[in-house]
Amino acid sequence: MSIDSDTRPASFWFYTGMKGITSLPALILMTSFVGFSAFALEAGISRGEAMFMTFGIWALPAQMILVGMMTTGAPLAACFLAVTLSSIRMMPMVASIVPEMRTRLTPTWLLLFASHFIAITAWVFALRTLRDVPREHRAVYFLGFGLTLTTINTGIVAICYGLVSQFPPLVAGTLFMLTPVYFVASIWATAHHSVVRLAFMVGIVGGPFMALVAPEFDVLYAGIGGGTAAYLIDRFYIRRRRRTGSAR
Amino acid sequence: MTEVWWWSYLVIAVAGFLATDIWRWLGVLSGNRLKEDSEALHWVRAVATALVMAVTAKLIVFPTGTLAGSPLWLRLAAAGLGFVAFLVSGQKVGVGVAVSMALLASGLWWLGF
């Protein structure tokens, strides 16, 4: 790594991160939170609870699960177990982005704080944009984006709660598809390494397949098992073949 | 559940905030030890990508809400052809998303949604 000769202050990079909220992924996510506020109202969750969930959990699948469990009156331990199982994916997501985000001088507490704002959308955003930011400002830059995105979506839930009871079916259906379709294209676009492309393909086939075979832990099997298989195939087959073919 | 007003907030703090952030904190602590371009990081990236794509593909194949009543072939065709358009356009994400959305919306309209 070369030493960055960037003289712009950290506040500039925090502000640059904030401006990321006008990016396509951020706008798509906002429509999802409009949908969440309608879902929360329907499920009998109060406005304050829905806002607290959005800021405190910041992971839509976990929020949907918790809303579902709370409305059935499930005990605290059961809620905890269900949410924590659905959130295991956060660990490899955060771990894969941290080495790109830090320098030797970045304090761990700052990374712990910034990690709260990592969910799929912010993860994709970081994969796409971090490399264009000087290394020593990356954590602050991401914090500018994550903190703003989370705060704005909490505000969206506050405002839209009770305002939008339901979209027309055609609009609701199309909006629902926006998120996965965006992830498919943007994650492929950021996949520079063969192992990531292979894992992409394994996950996309393995997810629905494992949902049929083992619906309880489908995402974990497809992720940990499929990701490990992709890594092994890449290391011992694809990269070996490429090395014998042409030196890279 | 108990009737005090703060109980639901406690449930959200423990079963929501804590239950998700534990994994984020563990991610920071383990990611801190990973060196860039190490084999371990390649593996972590592969697992993270496969996990996210598994979640994503499930949204398309097994959607909830309105889309649950739409045919699978329509969703797969919209997503698949959109991805092809994305590749053909030189990996322009906006093109892929726009093509998928247009195909899905016109398909839903045609089916009478």
Write the layout of secondary structure elements.
The complex is a heterodimer of chains A (248) and B (113).
Chain A: H1 10-18, H2 24-43, H3 47-57, H4 60-71, H5 76-86, H6 90-101, H7 108-115, H8 120-129, H9 138-160, H10 169-190, H11 194-213, H12 218-245
Chain B: H1 7-31, H2 39-61, H3 72-88, H4 93-110
Architecture overview:
The complex is a heterodimer of chains A (248) and B (113). Chain A has two domains: 11-179, no CATH class; 191-248, no CATH class. Helix content of chain A is 75%, strand content 0%. Chain A has helices at 10-18, 24-43, 47-57, 60-71, 76-86, 90-101, 108-115, 120-129, 138-160, 169-190, 194-213, 218-245. Chain A is globular, with a radius of gyration of 20 Å. Chain B has 113 residues and is mainly alpha-helical. At the A-B interface, helix 3, helix 4, helix 5, helix 6 and helix 7 of A face helix 1, helix 2, helix 3 and helix 4 of B.
Label this structure with key terms.
heterodimer; A: 248 residues; mainly alpha; 2 domains; 12 helices; globular; B: 113 residues; 4 helices; 73% helix
The helix-and-strand class of chain B reads: mainly alpha
Can you give the mean pLDDT of chain B? 92
Main β-sheet of chain B, in a few words? none
How far apart the termini of chain B lie comes to: 39 Å
Task: State the share of residues found in helices of chain B, binned by percent.
Answer: over 70%
How many domains is the backbone of chain A divided into? 2
Q: Per DSSP, what share of the residues of chain B sits in E-state strands of 2 or more residues?
A: under 5%
Oligomer: heterodimer
Low-confidence stretches of chain A: none
Termini gap of chain A: 19 Å
The radius of gyration over CA of chain A amounts to 20 Å
As a percent range, the share of helical residues of chain A equals over 70%
Q: What percentage of the residues of chain A does DSSP assign to strands (E)?
A: under 5%
Which H/E pattern describes the elements of chain B? HHHH
- Secondary structural class of chain A: mainly alpha
Shape of chain A: globular
